[in-house]
Each structure stands twice: as C-alpha cells, then as structure tokens.
Design goal:
Elements (H helix, E strand, L loop, with lengths): L1 E6 L7 H16 L3 E6 L5 H12 L5 H8 L1 H16 L4 E4 L1 H4 L1 E3 L8 E4 L2 H8 L3 E5 L2 E3 L5 E3 L4 H12 L4 E6 L20 E3 H9 L7 H9 L4 E5 L7 E4 L11 E5 L2 E10 L4 H11 L7 E3 L6 E9 L3 H10 L8 E5 L2 E7 L9 H11 L6 E5 L2 E7 L3 H11 L5
Parallel strand pairs: 1-2, 1-9, 2-6, 3-6, 9-11, 10-12
Antiparallel strand pairs: 4-5, 7-8, 11-12, 13-18, 14-16, 14-17, 15-16, 18-20, 19-20
Helix pairs in contact: 1-4, 7-9, 8-9, 12-13
GO molecular function: aspartate kinase activity; ATP binding
GO biological process, one term: lysine biosynthetic process via diaminopimelate
Subunit structure: Tetramer consisting of 2 isoforms Alpha (catalytic and regulation) and of a homodimer of 2 isoforms Beta (regulation).
C-alpha cells in the first residue's frame, strides 16, 4: 500500500513534534507500506520570513519572496529525514526541483501543471521513506514558485493522484473537520464525513483546515482524503464523493474576515457595463465574490462586490486606472466586514434554509449587507465586529452543536 501523509507547520514546530511525526510515519513503513511525507515549514516560520522580508523591502518582488519562503519547507524535510535516520530508518528529503513538480509561473500563487514520479518511485523502490517539500513548484524558467498559503495540502493531493496512492492523510492540529471553528463556536462538533463539494465550499469560505485547491484536485482525481490530528489517534474526517452519504440540511458554518467590500458608483446604466468592470478585474487576476447591483436610476447604477483583503490595493489601482473607460464616478470601500456562510448538500431539497439563517441573525441583532447563494451555500456579508456572534447564532439556529 502507498500512503501519502501531509503534516502542517504546527505538527513539526519543534524537535519533539518532529520525532512524533517521524515515529507515526515509521509505523506504516514498518508495516510494509510505501510512505511519502509532505511537510510545511516549522511553526510560524513562513510568517517570520515574511516579517523579515518586510524589514528589508516592504515592496519586494514576488519572485524573491518565493525564493525566501521556500527555504522553510527545506528546513522541515531535511530535519525530518535526519530524525528518521536517527531512528534507524532509511529516508530521503527532496525539494520541488529534485522531484520536479512543474508549475505555472505566477509567483506567490502558482498552480501545478504536472508532476514527475521517476525520482520518488526510485527512492520508494529502494525502501526509503520519501519526504517532499510542500507549498512549492518549479516554473518553466527553473525558478522556484509557491502555491499560496496552505499549498502543502495541494502538494500532497497532487502526489497522491500521480502516484495512485491508496491513502492521502492530511494531519493538522485539530481532530478533523468541524461544523464550525471550535475556537470560536465552543459547541462545534467533528464531522465523520463530508463531501468534496461541501468541503470545497467550506475551504473557499474561510474554513482553514484544508486548502481549497487541494479539495478541487482531490475531487477531479477522486483522491479520498482523511483529515486528522497529528497530536492524537482520533479517526478524523473523511472527505469523499457523496453519492451514498446521508445529506444533512446544513453541514457547517464558515467565516472569513479577510474580505473587503468595494462599491463603484454612478456607472452608466446600459448593457455591457458590468461585464466591462468584472472583465477588467479578471484580466488583472482579481477574484470577485459576492456581487450586488442596484436598480438603475437617472441613467446610472451602482455595483458592490467583495474581494480578498490582499487584493484591495491592486483592485483600487486597476479601477482608478480605468475609471473613465468604465464610466465610474466614484469608488468606495469598507474593510470592516466579514463573510458568514452556511454549507450543506441538503439545502438543494429543503426550502426555508435561508429564512432560518436570516431569523438567527435577526434574533442576534446582526445586520446583513449583501447576500450570495449557490445550490449548497448561502453567504452573507456582516459587520466584522459581529462575526463571532453571528457564527454562534447561526450554528445554534440549525442545531449543529454537539
């Protein structure tokens, strides 16, 4: 059996935890399985490196940031190989260039194009545990790239897919996927299983337990994931296709504070105006989420939308640069907002879910600014100061508590 195991930064934050992970991997190895391990940087290394870079150059080019940040994972994998060798087990550490994990050239947020398997298979055939740097790839210029925060999950799923692994286990510092962030909602309970679609929505909407692109890839290549704690032996949560799974009305509640609302005021009220605005943003790699357009009045209309907080400055620059062409009279923005979402495959066949969510928010005196829906998701924009109260209210309103 071939098993891919991914461990997050908190799981390898110090010497004791590195040896804990090494021993867990060695258990499967000594049971006769082939083991590939994917690691994130130790503890807060990535944040520390970003802070260090900002002291040198707050406007550093993304290529150089990628060169810097990828050193964190190289430290992790090399120390892990040393730990396993100290425990008398053959192990080898490999970075993205040594494996050759081909990626696009977008520094800071690259995507995998293909992954070579020859080196990994050679090392596995030599009965070694293979330890691979997460979070990174190599572009056509032979430059190192990073996949965005949480990208080690995507590395693990990509390897599981190309190696046709029997298991892909994602280890973290929580016991699995919960109905809400247990640090905010004390009554949140662990889910035994969740569908790819539900997990993709939760991951995209602020649940930090899995990188959303890793779930997208897992669904595409039918890689069954297990999310579990590296600190205990609990069974965790299985993420898989949901054809035979019982559909709960609402599976979970997610919140995202890293969002900002932008309003473009006084646009010409004519066909093609909205297309021009959002096509311009898309051409500049700015993702837009919730959209609200006002009713036209006196030949003009307003459009409000949300973007990630990191994209605010870029979005404003792009809009200002195209202000006349897009017929924008004014641009305003609000950073003191947060997204609250409920996700559940059961929503498709149950009317009244939105009403229940709005009732819960009304009872807690939380005002709703914008609303967006899909077949299995309802997202609202609320004041940032109310997000924790709103999460608890909606979680209790749907009876999701343990």
């Amino acid at each position: 059996m071939l098993i891919v195991k991914k461990f997050g930064g908190s799981s390898v934050a110090n010497k004791e935890r590195i040896f804990n992970v090494a021993k867990r991997c060695i258990e499967d190895y000594r049971a006769g399985h082939d083991v590939v391990v994917v690691l994130s940087a130790m503890g807060d290394t990535t944040d520390d490196l970003i802070a260090l870079a900002n002291t040198i150059n707050p406007n550093a080019k993304k290529r150089e940031l990628d060169m810097l940040l990828t050193t964190g994972e190289q430290v992790s994998v090399s120390l892990m190989a040393m730990a396993m060798q100290a425990l008398d087990v053959s192990a080898v550490s490999l970075n993205a260039f040594q494996v050759m994990m081909h990626s696009t050239s977008r520094y800071g947020n690259a995507r995998f194009k293909r992954v070579d398997t020859e080196r990994i298979m050679h090392e596995l055939d030599s009965r070694k545990i293979v330890i691979v740097t997460g979070f990174q790839g190599v572009n056509k210029y032979d430059d190192i790239t990073t996949l965005g925060r949480g990208g080690s999950d995507t590395t693990a799923v990509a390897l599981a897919a190309v190696l046709h692994a029997d298991k892909c286990e994602i280890y973290t510092d929580v016991d699995g996927v919960f109905t809400a962030d247990p640090r905010v909602v004390k009554t949140a309970k662990k889910l035994d299983a969740v569908t790819y679609d539900e997990m993709l929505e939760l991951a995209s909407l602020g649940a930090k337990v899995l990188h959303n692109r890793s779930v997208e890839m897992a669904k595409k290549y039918n890689v069954e994931l297990v999310v579990r704690s590296s600190l205990n032996r609990s069974e965790g949560t299985v993420v898989k296709e949901g054809a035979n799974m019982e559909k709960l009305l609402v599976t979970g509640v997610a919140a995202d504070k890293d969002t900002v609302r932008i309003s473009v005021i006084g646009l010409e009220d004519k066909p093609g105006t909205a297309f021009a605005v959002f096509n311009t943003l898309a051409a500049n790699n700015i993702n837009v989420d919730i959209i609200l357009q006002s009713v036209g009045r006196e030949g003009t209309k307003d459009i409000s939308f949300t973007v990630a907080s990191d994209d605010l400055e870029h979005a404003i620059e792009v809009l200002n640069a195209n202000k006349e062409r897009l017929t924008i009279q004014d641009i305003t923005w609000n950073e003191k907002v947060a997204k609250l979402s409920i996700v559940g495959a059961g929503m498709m066949s149950n009317p009244g879910v939105a009403a229940k969510m709005f009732e819960s928010l009304y009872n807690s005196r939380v005002n709703i600014n914008m609303i967006s829906t899909s077949e299995i998701r309802i997202t609202v924009l609320v004041p940032e100061e109310d997000i924790e109260k709103a999460m608890n209210a909606v979680h209790d309103g749907f009876g999701l508590g343990a």
